[in-house]
Amino acid sequence: MLLADEPTTALDSTLEVEILNLLRRLQNETGCGIVFVTHHLGVVASLCDEVLVMKDGAVRDSGVVRRVFTQPQDNYTKALLRCDPARITEPTRRLPTMADVLETGTKEKIDPPRRIMADTAPALKINNLSVKFTRSGIVPTVLGGWLEEIPAVQNVSFVIRQSETLALIGESGSGKTTIARSIMGLIQPDNGQIVLDEQDMVGANAGDWHTARAKVAMMFQDPAGSLSPRVSIAKQVIEPLIVHGRKFEATRERALELLELVGLDASFADRYPHELSGGQARRAGVARALALSPKLVIADEPTAGLDVSIQGEVLNLLNSLQDQMGLSILLITHNMSVVRHVADRIIVMLKGQVVESGATAHLFENAQQDYTRALIAASHHPIPNQDIQKNEM
What is the pTM of this model? Predict the structure, then answer.
């Protein structure tokens, strides 16, 4: 028996398919059973024979996957399926949440994507950005060997405009996180420009970077892991204010304002990270990211490891805050179903290079590159059919 606990979390869609194929092949070769624990409904549809739907420690629905997905018996299962972004055919900026569906019992109103005008002021400009890493070859340098240069990002250029959501997608190792770390000043590029408020930050001094980091905030992939287990949520939310020398603003009242902004009431102020659910920890991370009122938020896999309803809550929150504050968002994700609903434009990366870019709707309908088409195709999970599924795997 193999117990697989979220083995595809935060993997790109093509690698996800490879892992699922590997598991099926190993199962056929060894005859082992697999218990697959996941939030990903598409993975269940692709791999599993039977499914148990659980809530609050109890089984709410069970049976053959096709039956449960097409004829769910429990209202919770029905709501869960309705909240899956992959099953929502028309793009919408407001995704359904479990609370919405259970309370109203009806589908959400479609909120069509916004139009970002080309002449809108840029929040960030990247020009011909290149980053190389070095590593020792087979022979260590102390024995006469040499350092090998590895191009991580090669001549990447793009613009993020005010109030725009730009999705940066591509398989693992394509250079997405390297770009994000360069924007935050954590990596020094070899060439190119990173322009924030008309100032090129490549080669900028420490003082300039300190000022710039107040304009750019980071939402980390692991929301709970990015919070200190020994510090209350209120203190962590206002920590950026203290770091940037604004202690007079770092009050409990400000912490409560930020928590309320992201949908957490005052009772969360004195809690610690282990007392928060995944969605609550993500909201706390958003509150901390907004403490300095940044112009740009870099969201690194903001929905990784969250169930489909919580994904909707987090993305709806970001969209709402974007409308209120004029935030620009750089969305780094493997979740193509999410990208389709929330991103205004997409940049597709492969091996450190941009291979395709354009408006979201255009790329999903008319992708020019085989690689882009493969990413989109791998994210599609039709209603499962057990017989077809086993033959194809």
Answer: 0.86
